[in-house]
Amino acid sequence: MKTFLSKLDSINYYTATRKYSLSFPRLTDDIEADVVIIGGGFSGINTALELAEKGITNTVILEGRHLGYGGTGRNGGQVMAGIGHDIEAVRKHVGTEGIKTLFSIANLGAGIIKDRIDRYGIDADFRNGYGYLAFNNRQKNTLRTWLDEFRRIAPEEEIELLTGRNVETVVGSRAYSAALKHMGGGQVHSLNLLLGEAMALSSHGAKIFENSPVISVEYNNRILVRTNSGSVKATKLLWACDSFLNNLEPKISKKTINTYSFQVASEPLSDALVERISPIRGAYSDIRPVIDYYRITNENRLLFGSATEYIEYAPRDFRQWNFGRILKIFPYLANIKLEFAWGGPMACSANLFPQIGTLPGQPNAFFVQGYSGFGVTPSHIVCKVLAEGMSEGSARYDLMSAIPHREIIGRDYFRPTVMTAAKTWHQICGHFNGRR
Is 361 exposed, middle or buried (0-12, 13-18, 19+ CB in 10 A)? Predict the structure, then answer.
């Protein structure tokens, strides 16, 4: 794992194709703000932008490395429906009416992203088209249920279920028995989206600082956040570090555990090959407990990612590891070259549902974390709700922040063992809930 972690600073597809030459200074002064946010990924930037659009602009963002260093700049770029892996997992905490509320906001993500891109003129390669894929009859039946739910939530969208050989009108593979085509979903260059959102945030007057790792936080009516070369005193604070929290705030660190995902991107492919792989030029994922996810990028590259299914480990060569998974789905791609290979951590919650709320006894110290590998789209939904809670308050925030967050025992000393047990349990459950 140490060898893998040493690769986190290597160039990946996103950093190689970024369109914004954007950088921010290091914090070197002692300043004051209304809100200080720790973390410069989607969670931090999106919450700050939501607050700015509400008129709360005296905000400071502190990023320990550079914007998008974490999951925002390492993911699959999938724009899919939903908030977490399974909304039903929190039914017992929110009740029937709460589930209805969560379903009502679960399809908002793509619209929020498209609105941001249009409003601020962000160049992020957004493209509509998504395929949810099934390998067997159990999964096919799950997609039939999703079809009804998606159509009820978004009746104006083009959504249909294809089976048998008709699946190949959605994705060029015979590995699947069914495909749920959802043209309201899609794909995006997540790093360029983040950088465009950061530019929009700066235009509202918020201050962003990079290379400014936080070393301590003192809670009070006014919260004091210190870096190694400056400080921020603010009325409210938001922890938005997700998988890079590194135990800096133990009260929330113990509520998530990191696992790892691995991605590759191919050389640019021919138009004919792209048309065969992706007739809808969309993004895709199967619905297994641990998914394969992939898309054709704006430059005709195949971007493909996954994680280990049962045993928690980092493959010695995750370029070749992913290539093996690609060939199971697209055997005709045996001769393509993979030009980029990268990976990174994902903070998972016990119920695989995002966490928001305030620290115990600190009503002015907020947090958001635990996207469990589904962060691009849900972060735009969750942070809209979070900003409501940090400003005027809302029933949606009260609902989501009231969901209990279980501590994960053994996360610090037995992480691989805990994750292996969790993945195995997740696979077993998947057999009974139509995901395997």
Answer: exposed
Residue keyed to tokens 């700015």:
52
For the chain, how many residues are written?
A: 436
pTM given for the model = 0.96
The Cα 304–Cα 426 span in angstroms is 22
pLDDT at residue 82, rounded to an integer: 84
| Nearest Cα to Cα of residue 77 among 277, 250, 296 | 296
Alpha-carbon gap, residue 383 to 379, rounded angstroms = 6
307-to-314, 339, 412, 418 alpha-carbon distances in Å: 9, 19, 20, 15
In contact, 223 and 364? CB cutoff 8 Å = yes
Q: Which CA distances in Å does 109 have to 90, 104, 388, 425?
A: 19, 11, 16, 29
Coil, strand or helix: which one is 330? coil
Q: Which of 429, 388, 411 is nearest to 86 (CA)?
A: 429
CA 292 to chain centre: 15
Write down the pLDDT at residue 216: 97
What ranges make up the beta strands (E) of 39-177?
A: 59-62, 78-79, 127-134, 159-163
Give per-residue pLDDT as tens, 245-282.
999 999 999 999 999 999 999 999 999 999 999 999 99
Q: Which residues of the chain have pLDDT under 50?
A: none
Q: How many CB atoms lie within 10 A of CB 436?
A: 18
Q: Are 11 and 213 in contact (CB under 8 A)?
A: no
What pLDDT shows up at residue 85?
74
pLDDT at res. 1: 55
CB 308 within 8 A of CB 423: yes
| 3-class DSSP state of 223 | strand
- Contact indicator for 115, 416 with CB cutoff of 8 Å: no
What pLDDT does residue 6 have?
A: 52
